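agent> call fold_tool(seq_1)
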Amino acid sequence: MSRPATISQLAALSRATLPPPSLPVPRTPRRSAARTFTMSASAPAPTTPLGFVLALSTFALCQPSPARSVFTNHWAVRIPGGRGDADRVALRYGYRNLGQIGGLENHYHFHHSRVVRRSAFAIKGSHSFIHMDPKVEWVQQQVVKSRVKRHARNDPNFIHFNDPKWSNMWYIHCGDKNNRCRSEMNILSAWQRGYSGRNVVITILDDGIERNHPDLAQNFDQLASYDVNGNDHDPTPRYDSSNENKHGTRCAGEVAAVANNSHCIVGIAFNARIGGIRMLDGDVTDVVEAKSLGIRPDYIDIYSASWGPDDDGKTVDGPGPLAKQAFEVGIKKGRKGLGSIFVWASGNGGRQGDHCSCDGYTNSIYTISVSSTTENGNKPWYLEVCSSTLATTYSSGEFYDRKIVTTDLHQRCTDGHTGTSVSAPMVAGVIALTLEANPLITWRDVQHLLVKTSRPVHLKASDWKTNAAGHRVSHLYGFGMVDAEAMVVEAKKWRSVPAQHTCTKISDRRTRYIRAEQSLNTTITSTGCRDNPEQQVAYLEHVVVRVLVVHPRRGDLEISLISPSGTRSQLLAKRLFDYSNEGFRNWEFMTVHCWGERAEGQWTLEISDSPSQLRNPEVLGKLKEWTLILYGTSEHPYHSHGSQHSRTRMLEIPSPGKELRNPAPSPSAPELEEEEEEEEYNGVPNSLSTLLTHSGPCHHECGDQGCDGPDADHCLNCIHFSLGNLKTGRTCVSHCPLGYFEDSGARRCRRCHRGCEKCVGQGVSECRSCRRGLYFYAGENTCLESCPGGFYADESRSQQVKAPWGVKFQVLPEILCCQFLAGMTCVPECANGTFFHLEEMKCSPCHHSCSSCTGPGKEECIQCARDFLQQEWRCVPECSLGYYAGEVAGFIQRMCRKCEENCLNCEGPGTTCTKCKEGYNLVSRTCILNATCNNADEVFCEMVKSNRLCEKKLFRQFCCRTCLMAGL
């Protein structure tokens, strides 16, 4: 008969099975460098000084022990028979089917409540027989993956400023007279052109967003939100005393904080819709990531993520098989086939010597990897270097550098947002402006636009180079600083690039030794698959190198790729803290430095090994295999036949006689675009018509005179309206855009008066709405720089900035001259308990549970009425089962907070359970898993009870297994 465990045995067992709470739990087990060194003990031992032996012993003792995998009670299962078969299989083995995993067909998320939630090993039992079920094609128990948020940790010398105003947004406008101002991202200029992200939907993959934040509530989109951690539709973060879950709310404010509402900041895309996917506040598994990446891909345009594997300089990790599928499904089916846009922060491991090529998220061709720079263009201390970075934005730097202002938890603001976490949402906001300019661009078009428009400006880096296609590129900053104005201008006239092709070439499978202090050079000669039209790559986009390397200390390796044109990409730099002996097992490195170059020719892979002092240099690494994967197009992405033909036609058609001119902007009005004289267009002379007529089908907007090409700008006359002039080129459209009105008699789009966004004629008093920043005076249908006497414009809700030519203009949405405003609509002032209903044009009552609200529903409360408590996203008269009433710092109202896990009901936080969920027993006000034991010792159990060990989380399950059946 076995003896019961003692207290010391329990403590020892707990240390053996649980990782230290202060250390992250990486997914891949590691071996210490000390162990790698002792593997060569069979070699003749040189004479070694005693001091070196002591130092080596100390180093070995200080190495972290290999981290253990943490297994959860969640499984991913592939069952091709549909939801019904999946439910039956789940029931047969005691699982609960939580539904399809994101957009992955036939993949289901199973949960088993009777398996320990977190375990150091895979627990076997009757549930394990699911592996043998004939309906199950594949099953994977989910393992916890370490994912860290990419804000820079506070520097001890950091001086905190808490002044969240427009004047602090130095990275958007130059309003600070005491500092050298940089605003090369040209966001103001994009706003000038009328773009603010309208009708674009962005979601933040993070720890949740505060949906009722005054600067987010108006733009919050419930359909773009989900709580993957809690399996519900409320992305509100979990509040605690440390405000740990502030990250998502901060990122959301950068993108879509509401403009002109007297609170905090202005988002880059201040008219976009913003949502949040709460997925980092819990165990992050492959299922969790795949679900998050696949939520409503036909509704959400942009997914922004500022997190990734540990930036510790030793981790090599990336998306699992399900998350990889989710990326692929997103770019193929998202946005109705145009492709979801995934934006990723490049990483904050600079101080640890990390390299973002070891992060499989930023290293993916499907993500836009974004870097950071300080306000003066210096490299931030946290920045990682790699060849997959596409572009850069401003962020924080040293303690004396200014940081980023944004929204914060508890309806507050902060001016302390830092790291590459800042940069991904900024680029997401710029892409939202771009999608408003042209909603039909694809996920690859967006990457091409970033490559074409980003600029080195004042970014300081020693490795700036010009590749063979003429692009300036750096391992620190990619193609340079994002330029919002250039993005929207290019997008407006953009034609989608040709289809993506993939050409793969595998090296011969001959093992090559990597010798210390030498370079291994191996080559692959590629034809760009020119013999296969479906795979041919003539012009490059992404280049991927997949390697199988065996090595005693992975961090000693450096890897570079040299293109046929001579462009060198550093795929991997030395990593001081990477002591793993696992090498690279079919790891994929990616570079964008060859973008636009020709694919054909000899590619050279260069690997060098610089052994650290604590490694035996006689143990050689091996390159067993490498594969070159080229992504690109078979024809030039920008030189299409149609565009060249169109330019030729514009030169050949004679002008009807009016002189073209480009007037300078008038100082009396904030003209937002260069205005050009219009020319009448009545087709072409018959002598030219015969020469220019196109033999194929014309565009559906072309008139009876035919065309000289297939597109709308090749028409010789139009069915509906002609837009443009001889200098800029004409195109046929069905409706005239903003800034123009339809002249039906002449079938022309004619310009409105300066300042008018919509109009019925060219006169100054024929406006119907104004361009952004002007005041609409309805009495005379005019657009003014300020309201006339007797009319009110809320100047505190708008900010004036000076354009380069000296004209002041408003950068916020159109402001009306009236008494009160709601957005861009004049409204009466609504009392507490009511909101302005834009459709009914009156103040309507909130739900009876709300004291203030954004709409009539019970889920649209900003603040709860008296005697109501806030639970999740609604106000309730009393907390429901599984919640308790409590105070939250920073909130004036009481809230319902979740009981501890496994409690069905409780009286407060911690061990105050009063009722347990099924499968758990109540022991000392704590719910612990049911267990059967036959060896309970009464004396031992009395000791457990007297020391109240079962109340300590570490010992609960051990106490249960030994004492529960004894009734103690």
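agent> call fold_tool(seq_2)
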Amino acid sequence: MRAVNTDLRSPFFQGIIEQDAAGNVMAINPVAENLLRLNQQALTQHTMQSVWGGKLYRSDQKQITKEQHPVFIALHSHMPSSCIAYLYNSEHFQSILITSIPILDPETLMPIKVISTLLDVVALQKTDNVAQIQLHQLEAIERISRINLQAGTFKETLHSSLEALLDIFDCDRAALIYPCDPSAGELTIPMECTRPEWPGAFDLDLNVPIDNDTAVVLQACLDNAGPVRYDALSFHSVPRQIKEEFSVKSQLMLALHPKVDKPWGLVIHHCDKPHVFTNEELWLFDEIGHRLAESLSSLITLRNMKESEERFRTLVENAPEAIFVLDVKSNRIIDANENAALLFGRPRDELIGSNYLTLSPGVQPDGQSSSELACRFVNDTVAGETPVYEWVYQNSRGNHIVCETRLVKLPAAGKELIRGSITDISGRKQTEAQQQKFSMALEQTADAIMITNADGIIEYTNKSFEAITGYSLAEVVGKTPRILKSTGPTQNQPAFYEKLWRTIKSGEVFNDVLINKRKDGSIYYEEKTITPLKSAAGEITHFISTGRDISERMRTQEYLQFLAHHDVLTQLPNRVLFIDRLEHAIINANRNNSMIAVLFADLDRFKFINDTLGHDTGDLVLKMVSGRFISSLRSGDTVSRQGGDEFAILLENIKSTEQITLICEKLLKSVSQSMLINEQELFVSVSIGISVFPGDSLNPQVLIKHADIAMYRAKESGRNNFQYFSPEMSSRAAERLTMETSLRKALERGEFSLYYQPQISLHGNNLIGFEALLRWQHPKKGLISPLQFIPILEETGLIVPVGEWVLESACHQLKQWHEIDHELHLSVNISNRQFNDRNLEEKFHSIIRCSGVNPACLELELTESLLMMNPVKTEQILNSFCDIGIGLSIDDFGTGYSSLSYLRRFPLDTLKIDRSFVRDITTDVNDAALISAIIAMAKSLQLTVIAEGVETHDQLEFLRGLDCEMAQGFLFHKPLPAFDAGRLIK
């Protein structure tokens, strides 16, 4: 606001009055004294109601009240106010335009004074031309003042003001420039308004570099107290670039000086035709500019305050700590962020307004009163301190929370406010307690513990480390773990150590098996886990290594794994490993929505080579064909030998059948090339059958079967070709749906029954028990194979109620048989789906208890894959069965999970050798060696072995020769109904 000026140079005189925030007159110029017929001394004697010595009236002759007076409005709204009022004197009513503008304190934004301008409207109207001009000026000023009085946003107020300028000066473009500073380097256009035919010249809020011409214009504005004109009568001309680019014919520009921030620039353009600015227009532009500057002062201050408040609120809301604001006088929380509500377990609106002292238990852990101690910290904060202390709070559920609290006094007029920041350190306190236990556990654990710094220098080893490696702590401190490095194949690969260091330096845990060397030079396998340790700042400071000597286990496991999953002759995966990979491929294909193909390949007339050239030559042919298969396939594909001259190939990530066709053509061409064996040239060919997932089947065994069928079709088609499997999909789907529908009613209709296959002791040739097998007697189709309906039971979940029925029926049957032979055992299978039932233990215990059967005579058969689905949960369930005497058996041993660690972990009693290994033990050296190893391993682990699928006397004698304890199979008896099985017992 400009100061009161008695040297008026405007086209007409205006009265000016300056008053303080209470309305007391501080200064008045002669024009105002003349208009009001009073001097300053007389004015100071009047109240706000009768300010300036007379009553003011509206145009309807109603008296203007105190609250309607522009001075009152300006002081209370903090914004300019104006009106046309009528003052009564002895002669007539006199009309006066009153405009009151508050002057705000930059820090508190409270009014410190108000300045009012008075114009005699009637006097202005006594002349024609001058009066019209002056009335236009009055209306323009009142219009701008009215816009500034409206409670609009920053942008809205600027836009409305510029729109008014277009109308007031009949110009084509009006804009605000920020900053009006030639040294700023860049400027922006916060707001611009134009006539429709003259579109905007500037992009709003875009940074525009200040060139030399623009800098000259800006400097001219700063150097002039009033507007700078660019027209035919001025000393300045519009810069050529601006004139041409924005079609400027005339320009009027003024520097605005708000009380905060840098100067702004106000500019209007005439673009249609040149315009010569009159003195009245220059004066009016100057007056409007000053009013806009005053408005900008308030708007910028309010905007800055709002942005500051929003930034503060954002910081508080997004702070990781729980933050609250406390009113010291009332001890009540007047604000809190969402983290505070979460910490105390209360809705935010409920937390706000609550008493701060109620958020703590009665006493703190040291026995001191929470309220007394809290008041002491609050008083210290009010006194200017910033206390940081550990405190126990209590949430809405009554749980205690250990926290770190920081109090800070907030600036506030007339109030004492404190901001509190709370960090939950319960986890940290627990960690400190656990560290004590951890240090004790390190010394007492059976694992070898080694701690190194971030560079790998050994700082600590425990006693188990010395027992395993032979090195004492004193011998290894300051050295690196390379002291244990052996010449094993894994450790000689640089990529191994690169992966190790890359893993642990990235903060991840490293797990692997290492081949290390003891102090005495002996080699041992170590199951190693290396875990990075981080500081509070997140930096890795140490590595902790735990190791376990697994040498014996690894030797056995490596041998068994190779025999169980590979063909000895070709080194290819065998059928067990192939099925495992096929199952995983199906899972991945489902996840990735891709295709896989199974190829079943059989060498044409290979028997002729064996019969004429001998088995040694045949073996060499198989090896060479294996190599040609591998070289013709992609790196991710799998080739396996199924037995004899049969191979199965798995193709993953297939995009189309055309891709499969190209691969098969490549295989046929590769195999058919001549081969030189023992200086004799041979030619072989291959027939290939193809099945595709998911089109041909979702089941791995069925996919192999379909590929096998297609292979025989290829042979029937002349050999040395390939054929795709082509089943009738609609009929097969309908048949499966019908079977599923029938299965859903089979249990309640009593269509299920149990058959019992005898289990024979090979030592005494006597019956020792049975395996209970589920059968389904369909009312129309007769006896259905379990291979057909059990997978459907698994998929639909019906296996759970059916499995309970099986166990219940088997237990009641065993109870009856115990009246004849109380030592008779019975094995019952548990499916994977059934094992995952959350109520499994409760149901099984209830069934066994209700049947009255001796649990020691009952054995549950589980698959290897079932055991490893959730080892922790599985171990808990198996231990509960073991506790009541139930025996546990691994069914189809050797066909499932590739690790044998579960044999030591779980409380197992029996291993059942899968029939697929027993079938060829007298003709296949691989199967014979595998069964021999399984039996030897089982005996070393004190496990009983039973072989299933024994069908010939040669198989029986072979198993007896290996000291296998039990067997079952068609050689002894096929599965029997309960009645026939009971006759065997008698």
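agent> summarizing second result for user.
The mean pLDDT is 85. The chain has six domains: 15-149, 169-281, 319-424, 431-549, 572-727, 740-985.
agent> awaiting next instruction.
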